[in-house]
């Protein structure tokens, strides 16, 4: 999962730091991320796609320290809201490396991003184009855009995270794209600079990318043949990571090899928007066993992390591997690992083979760095977890644990 995650004498360490000690010091539930892992993944992207612009998808993990780590390594940002623009700028991402997607951008958000002079808007509808043109006029700016095209490709992933299929709400149908590009070209305050697509997330196979990028490259060439000058070919994010022990991640190098014959057909700056593949396996969620109960037919390990901390199992039926933070060499059992929240969907693992644990033991939930904390909530008035970044033995709290006053601070 992560080469920096390893057992030393039966105790789990991340980048040389004992996860048991972190849990004892900062409490649980606790997110711990590995900085070296993130740097390695970014380097891998840069080496696989030389000359490309890597825009980290902030939605995967919006902690400003994580975003700033990316910015320090030269990455840009892929954002989907005014809040993400705010984080990206605060974390030091150069606006000339920010791309902005999303089907429902508000006027406030659009104005903020135009004023920040971001690289481009990935426009998802004709109405958005019209509003951008108006706002450009009001602000005296020419707004750079790409059109997000929907290439009608099945990425073979969970339906909730497939975004480029015919019936999805995202983008403009590829068959109608040329018409929209011509319309955009007629607008005084719009500058057309590229083509964008993003077909989905947790994709483990190159073939949907090959299919989608071929279509998008054809469009790019056809637009250029009509004298439309373009510069950016944004192929989105979506590379899948290892969740189950038997999974094999799709690596940037594999994607690059599969796409290079197609990408060679255009002279464009390639833009990538990886999220999960940069941070997913950088992070673990440490949780403490509260109770254990056996109901005859089923065994339950009840922990202090719930669906409000990690919602992926509940909404995507996602698998997250779980390891004991301290191996005790006890026999293994088959159990559900569940949270304290009053919903049956509040589970981290079902029918999982796990070393028997007892009250007070710590468990590490793996692959929790992406869409973990970022999707957490206050459900059941539960303060959100503490986040810690480890970097070659150094430990830094990058987000303090919340308290009740914080949760209610706007409710007066
Ligand atoms: N670009 C765009 C336009 C996106 O919508 C997304 C993700 C990405 C890039 C980054 O995709 P990634 O490289 O992380 O796969 N909450 C879900 C994942 C939702 C992904 C949404 N869009 C989950 O936990 O699996």
TrEMBL record:
CDD domains linked to this entry: PLPDE_III_DapDC (cd06828)
Domain Orn/DAP/Arg decarboxylase 2 C-terminal: 31-369
Catalysed transformations (reactions): meso-2,6-diaminopimelate + H(+) = L-lysine + CO2
Entry keyword annotation includes Amino-acid biosynthesis: yes
Residues recorded as bearing N6-(pyridoxal phosphate)lysine in the entry: 59
Pathway: Amino-acid biosynthesis; L-lysine biosynthesis via DAP pathway; L-lysine from DL-2,6-diaminopimelate: step 1/1
UniProt keyword annotations, A-Z: Amino-acid biosynthesis, Decarboxylase, Lyase, Lysine biosynthesis, Pyridoxal phosphate
EC number from the UniProt entry: 4.1.1.20
Highest taxon of source: Bacteria
Family: Belongs to the Orn/Lys/Arg decarboxylase class-II family. LysA subfamily.
The name this protein goes by in its record: Diaminopimelate decarboxylase
Organism: Thermocrinis albus (strain DSM 14484 / JCM 11386 / HI 11/12)
Lineage summary: Bacteria, Pseudomonadati, Aquificota, Aquificia, Aquificales
Gene: lysA
């Amino acid at each position: 999962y992560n080469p920096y995650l390893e057992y030393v004498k039966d105790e789990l360490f991340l980048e040389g730091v004992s996860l048991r000690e972190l849990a004892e010091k900062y409490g649980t539930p606790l997110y711990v991320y590995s900085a070296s892992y993130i740097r390695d993944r970014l380097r891998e992207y840069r080496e696989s796609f030389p000359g490309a612009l890597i825009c980290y998808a902030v939605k995967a993990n919006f902690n400003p320290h994580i975003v700033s780590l990316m910015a320090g390594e030269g990455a840009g940002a892929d954002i989907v809201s005014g809040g993400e623009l705010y984080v990206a700028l605060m974390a030091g991402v150069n606006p000339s490396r920010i791309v902005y997607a999303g089907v429902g951008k508000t006027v406030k958000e659009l104005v903020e991003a135009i004023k920040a002079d971001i690289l481009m808007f990935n426009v998802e509808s004709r109405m958005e184009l019209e509003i951008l043109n108006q706002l450009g006029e009001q602000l005296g700016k020419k707004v750079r855009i790409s059109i997000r095209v929907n290439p009608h490709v099945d990425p073979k992933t969970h339906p909730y995270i497939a975004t480029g299929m015919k019936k999805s709400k995202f983008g403009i149908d590829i068959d109608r794209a040329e018409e929209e590009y011509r319309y955009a070209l007629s607008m005084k305050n719009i500058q057309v600079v590229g083509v964008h697509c993003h077909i989905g997330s947790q994709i483990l196979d190159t073939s949907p990318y090959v299919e989608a990028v071929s279509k998008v490259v054809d469009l790019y060439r056809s637009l250029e043949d009509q004298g439309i000058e373009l510069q950016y070919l944004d192929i989105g994010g979506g590379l899948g990571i290892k969740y189950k022990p038997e999974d094999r991640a799709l690596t940037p190098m594999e994607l690059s090899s599969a796409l290079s014959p197609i990408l060679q057909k255009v002279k464009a700056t390639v833009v990538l928007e990886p999220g999960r593949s940069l941070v997913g396996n950088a992070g673990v969620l440490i949780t403490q066993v509260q109770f254990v109960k056996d109901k005859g037919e089923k065994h339950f390990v009840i922990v202090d992390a719930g669906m409000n901390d990690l919602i992926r199992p509940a909404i995507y039926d996602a698998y997250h591997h779980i390891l004991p933070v301290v191996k005790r060499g006890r026999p293994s059992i088959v159990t559900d690992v569940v949270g304290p929240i009053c919903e049956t969907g509040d589970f981290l693992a079902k029918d999982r083979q796990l070393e028997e644990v007892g009250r007070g033991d710590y468990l590490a939930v793996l692959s929790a760095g992406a869409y973990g904390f970022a999707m957490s909530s206050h459900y059941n008035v539960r303060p959100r977890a503490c986040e810690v970044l480890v970097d070659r033995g150094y430990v830094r709290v990058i987000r303090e644990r919340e308290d009740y006053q914080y949760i209610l601070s706007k409710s007066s």
